[in-house]
Known about the structure:
With 208 residues, the protein is mainly α.
Amino acid sequence: FNIALLLQKYAHHTQYQHYGSASDMKEKNKLFIPYVITLIGTIMMFLLLVLPFTTATDEYAERLDRFADTEVYKGLSLTCADVKNVNLVDYARIYVAVGENLWKNEYAGWIYAGLIAAIGLFSLIAVIKAIRKKPIGIIISTIFTMITVAIFNWDLSARHVVQNENYVWGVAHYCYYIIPVIIIVGSIWLFIKKRQLNKDISNSPLQS
Length: 208
């Protein structure tokens, strides 16, 4: 009788375990879509560092094509053909190389390089937080990315480096407005789903 009772309890417990594991798997699958959105979004935001941030106008691009193989700045492996589209990494390299000539201060270029490095760092942190499914961390690092990009945008506009007869904003500039919004929406969705999952797990029969 005792053995039969033990077997019955074991079968009952196993049934609950099977139900619980299946239910948990189903609930965790609900995190998949917001997780993928935030992960892909943060990776894309990081990759914006190497996409065109500013682009030469058609007229200026034609002028650059005439001297396509000519080095723009001595010591930098950037030709006229390369600067038809300038990404943030290129800007960091250029400002470090010519900062002293532009601002009469050898450290000025490094300030700009540091600002661009901060954009990359915050973007990388967002990727790491997305991998670990940390929605609050994703949102915070994305906001800091947006702030540093906004500062750089303002500086380029204030110095008339862009939106002139030579350069206009490139694709990366506009993506920095679109992609962070997608990331933040996905992060909020992920946060809500995680809260629901934790609540469902705490209310499951196995937790009682």
